[in-house]
């Protein structure tokens, strides 16, 4: 005679504490659950416009792996696929949208408690001008945010945004900031400097020698910032409601001229850096011709930006206000520029000059 054995299955029960419950600015409860990490829930739902872009991919990855539900409005089927695996099953929600379609924008923000707008264009196309993207697109997004009483709105602009700038790109960026603040006063504005990273158009253009024509003798001052630091800063804004309505300028710890950066690129890639410095009128004329090509190379406004040094806004908050220590360009230059070495020098150790620059050895 056989006896039936009973097995007792243990069920893990998560205890919710008072600090797991947060009341948002608009009175909505935010309920956290789980031990933290990919399979937990932060209680936040974030919409990231421009998620397929350079910074957007890093931001979605950071938000999703912490347990945030991320809504990704997309236009390109191929570009949005890699984002699906950024979070656990059901953590990343894909919604097709059009920047000129107000209904699709509203569908993307109506269930979120924070919205990031990272949409931007470095150059104009036949379908979208700077005004279409930076001003009118921002207006549609922020009006949807106000309509559904979303807790937070973060407008990602850029350093040097100024309504009186000689660059149309910088002017429209500043006008987009004003449009956002006019509709939603609690808008948090973030102005990152030139961003470098694995897929950037900063170090990669210099390392691959795409930007062979320059002007202003490369005397422009820049302060490059690492993409991971920018994404981390944007993530922290979600958890700190005191940052609502603030202006943040995010830039790297060191200031350089473009000549110094070109010298660094030459040392790391172990290739001579050659550039043709042309007068501004000549380079702008060339840019007008090249801008008509199907593949983007350079546009006149990008030439104009070569003559504008980085400038700072008095009273703007910085990385240190978020508790972040930004990473210097020298510390990561080898990681991102090694691919531009020749095959025989690919595994060569850093030169003595690189070590001096990187660790500031006398």
From TrEMBL:
Q: Which GO terms describe its molecular function?
A: protein-containing complex binding
Q: Which InterPro entries match?
A: ComplexI_NDUFA9_subunit, Epimerase_deHydtase, NAD(P)-bd_dom_sf
Looking at the record, the residues that make up the NAD-dependent epimerase/dehydratase domain are 47-210
**Sorted alphabetically, which Pfam families does this protein's record hold?**
Epimerase
Q: Does the keyword Methyltransferase apply?
A: no
Name-wise, this protein is: NADH-ubiquinone oxidoreductase subunit, mitochondrial
Organism, as annotated:
Neolecta irregularis (strain DAH-3)
GO CC, sorted alphabetically, is: mitochondrion
Answer whether the UniProt record assigns the keyword Cytoplasm to this protein.
no
**What keywords is this UniProt entry annotated with?**
Ubiquinone
* Superkingdom field: Eukaryota
